[in-house]
Amino acid sequence: MNNARTATLLMYCPDQPGVVAAVTDFLARHGANVIDLDQHVDRVEGVFFMRVKWELDGFALTPEAFEQAFSEAIAKGFEASWQLHHDPNPIRMAIFVSKIPHCLYDLLSRWQSGEWRVDIPLIISNHDTLRPVAEQFGVPYYHFPITAETKAEQEAREIELLQAHDIELVALARYMQVVSPQLIQAFPERIINIHHSSLPAFAGAKPYHAAHARGVKIIGATSHYVTEDLDAGPIIDQGVTHITHRDTVQDLIRKGQDLEKIVLARGIWAHLQRQTLVYQNRTIVFG
Amino acid sequence: MNNARTATLLMYCPDQPGVVAAVTDFLARHGANVIDLDQHVDRVEGVFFMRVKWELDGFALTPEAFEQAFSEAIAKGFEASWQLHHDPNPIRMAIFVSKIPHCLYDLLSRWQSGEWRVDIPLIISNHDTLRPVAEQFGVPYYHFPITAETKAEQEAREIELLQAHDIELVALARYMQVVSPQLIQAFPERIINIHHSSLPAFAGAKPYHAAHARGVKIIGATSHYVTEDLDAGPIIDQGVTHITHRDTVQDLIRKGQDLEKIVLARGIWAHLQRQTLVYQNRTIVFG
Amino acid sequence: MNNARTATLLMYCPDQPGVVAAVTDFLARHGANVIDLDQHVDRVEGVFFMRVKWELDGFALTPEAFEQAFSEAIAKGFEASWQLHHDPNPIRMAIFVSKIPHCLYDLLSRWQSGEWRVDIPLIISNHDTLRPVAEQFGVPYYHFPITAETKAEQEAREIELLQAHDIELVALARYMQVVSPQLIQAFPERIINIHHSSLPAFAGAKPYHAAHARGVKIIGATSHYVTEDLDAGPIIDQGVTHITHRDTVQDLIRKGQDLEKIVLARGIWAHLQRQTLVYQNRTIVFG
Amino acid sequence: MNNARTATLLMYCPDQPGVVAAVTDFLARHGANVIDLDQHVDRVEGVFFMRVKWELDGFALTPEAFEQAFSEAIAKGFEASWQLHHDPNPIRMAIFVSKIPHCLYDLLSRWQSGEWRVDIPLIISNHDTLRPVAEQFGVPYYHFPITAETKAEQEAREIELLQAHDIELVALARYMQVVSPQLIQAFPERIINIHHSSLPAFAGAKPYHAAHARGVKIIGATSHYVTEDLDAGPIIDQGVTHITHRDTVQDLIRKGQDLEKIVLARGIWAHLQRQTLVYQNRTIVFG
């Protein structure tokens, strides 16, 4: 929305007095005009988390110089883990889909209309079904059929392709395949999935059928980072909608799809804004 | 709200043509002015459900005469299960509590202020903690301490007491004891519990701790009829609230309590209005 | 979802005993298997409303025969207003847009993916901006530039075009032009608009700017039938989302767009399902 | 929840580089262990807002010493407005009511159960109706009948009484009287009202009747600081609930009451936690 170039720092370290003062002082000394700062202390774990965003205009340090100076001045002493992001730099995102198109349409629309500053260089699918959608939006579509026998090999090719396209973020837009550890390890905390229930309720397959059978009065959707435990990764966002006894499984699927596309989009948006930081399987989503 | 005396019929039967016509025709012939009718067909199960409410003013049948006439004219032929309720007749409700008072305060306030037409002849607790609250509202308080050894005997005494007071409905207002089968069987589909999560997520003990550990972004509460499967009974109502990483377990408990009292009250209200009908562990909640 | 051919009757009349019995009896006598029935009595206005849906398989009456028989048997005696709809019959819907594309993308996606049984023969706009989106989805796009001088003439041409395409429903998908009485009268209760606030709050232009200035903590969107009073037509659906002081006007716009497309879609869906009936500027939305 | 003694600083000033660094450095130098820090920059207005909370254990400055040192070191140079609050210090709150009791019950329950650390030394009402509720909870109840003629005089007596009891915060718990400027000026940004609509929709009297007449599908409640413009003060919190055409005005009132008590409580809670800061008729509610 704003064309000023900015940098965002995400960090955490053992909680201790003086971290905020040290970091903001460091930034001020190098000419940063801080435009957003959010911090959080997990008092139980004793961990301090911070996100700071500042204008690059007038800031004295290149990313390389920052790395060295920040490590020396702050990170070493406070034992901090940190990431620096220079934006706007459209993040390069790949989309994985199967046969159900609503999330794909939604993500492509946000990209094509310019609602999001993101590049989508490719779409990967285990089916050829949605190729026309990709073509209509002018995005290359790669079909990798997957069977139990070919899965490891096909995923290895997918990883190569993603790396060749310099992909940072992978959106699983109702991709109906369990992603294997090799792919997850290649993109740690950089694969976002949409699960069609309010996790941990109804993890696994056919959650709407399970929800209907249980007679719930609320259904949900969950966007989360993918980890090796199925549907158990760090949650970024969740949404729900009320249902009634009148709603059939088909109604749940239909109403759920509206949730899924919005909740997936909110999860991706938070990542694109560099608002997320994962710690011990939970996601800090800074304001 | 309305002083007109009314009757409500809840029924279900195998789905077949002509049920609505037969029932409404039956009521019209006996002088009923129908003021509310809601029906639902479960197409998968092939079951027809209906709730009809009519004014008693001008209606020709006493409850006894209704029983005979309706059985002959409708229930037998359609193989219908049914209940007839004459209202307003304040339903007699008992409250079970332990040590956490927010739901108790909320229910007593609704009763004392006249928001609900309900009688609350007694409160039962496994602790003596909340006796002052009961006394303040002028409701008799019975303390039944429960240990593994005394549980069966104490519950037997509770059942006697409930029956002696002609109790129809039992509200478990954060009663932290598993209710045993004998009590459930004495009040089938007439015990409403509030569980402090959005079931089936986090069934069992300490759901807020579990929710915090899982890093969810939404917490919920569920009012449901109690069955012998713990936290697995037919759901009447559910509510949720958004939380963030800033919320501690204590915050979840605090925010959750607001949900719990509202969702328990909505579940009880639906029962008091004769809007609920349980079929195969799911609750039809008529409009 | 279901391929069985069905008919839906929407009706209202002065409230009086026996209406449900008469209608359901009429349908049963002509072989209808009722699969959905919802009724509502407005006790203050003294009006009875009903929606009945039945399978056409086995039903004895053609639409023409129904008209005559129903008028004779029911409508005259009860002074009923009624509409009969035969479905599935994809409803023919036109979309009006200006320059903001998110609702357009969303509606076209639902149509193209087959989520909705609807035909979209054309898109009309007062700008040429979104022609590429229409072309990408293969839908004819008509550009009618509008100035104060040309408005009446251009709208007359639009009406002709809509009628030539046998359009039943018009969706204003963020169409930033006040629609004039002649167009509204040509499509009474058949133009659905999305307003980007929770009406009646912030009617008129720039509601997000007004919401931000007022410091609200919730923003909303409203789908409603268009009437000659600006933003005052019968509401079909509304949705809201929580915001905070951190949200700028740009954030409100972004978050609001997610609401707008979902709430517009829900409003249109209700119309497509023949669930809506307007009475005295309020919309009955049957279950 | 936590017994550690803490201090909270709320401040704002013209946005400029180095504020966070200066404040956190100031606190660190005097031995503060910051446990919560939230800041916000209104980029349009060019104003910087901050809330910092720290443990008093180990902090070197008394409130008086803080005043002088902070003014010198920070406030003068940055032209900052600020408030310092020492907690836990139960805030002294008065409740104003008329005849509708649900909010009163709710607030008294939160106080009596210890859910909130707050003192409630008195209740003031323009009617004698709810005296029994106050007595039941053991809170003194003062009845000030108000007519057009007596209003100024009665409010003057109310102000005296509030000041005599050292009241900081006034909760209007469905107090059905317009509060006049003299009372508002005596408690600036310290009177919280609950309005029974989602402001700015349906300001003024009988909002549920107006909402029903307009045919909305959502009703709301708003807690806000009272200013001299009726129902136009800075909003703290808002909540909504979905309704349908089946809901009568009585249903709206009933459902709305559940919203009102929760939204009023959330607004008061935010104030008690020193999370609120008013700037130009909008409320910053820190996380």
TrEMBL record, chains A, B, C, D:
InterPro entries: ACT-like_dom_sf (IPR045865), ACT_dom (IPR002912), Formyl-FH4-Hydrolase_C (IPR041729), Formyl_transf_N (IPR002376), Formyl_transf_N_sf (IPR036477), PurU (IPR004810), PurU_ACT (IPR044074)
A single BP term in Gene Ontology: one-carbon metabolic process
Pfam families the record matches: ACT (PF01842), Formyl_trans_N (PF00551)
GO molecular function, one term: formyltetrahydrofolate deformylase activity
Active site feature: 231
Domain of life: Bacteria
Enzyme Commission number(s) of this protein: 3.5.1.10
Keyword vocabulary terms for this entry: Hydrolase, One-carbon metabolism, Purine biosynthesis
Record field: catalytic activity: (6R)-10-formyltetrahydrofolate + H2O = (6S)-5,6,7,8-tetrahydrofolate + formate + H(+)
Pathway(s) the chain acts in: Purine metabolism; IMP biosynthesis via de novo pathway; formate from 10-formyl-5,6,7,8-tetrahydrofolate: step 1/1
Every ACT domain range: 8-89
Keyword Hydrolase: yes
Similarity remark: Belongs to the PurU family.
PANTHER family associated with the record: FORMYLTETRAHYDROFOLATE DEFORMYLASE, FORMYLTETRAHYDROFOLATE DEFORMYLASE 2, MITOCHONDRIAL
Function as written in the Swiss-Prot or TrEMBL entry: Catalyzes the hydrolysis of 10-formyltetrahydrofolate (formyl-FH4) to formate and tetrahydrofolate (FH4).
Protein name as it appears in the record: Formyltetrahydrofolate deformylase
Protein source organism: Spiribacter salinus M19-40
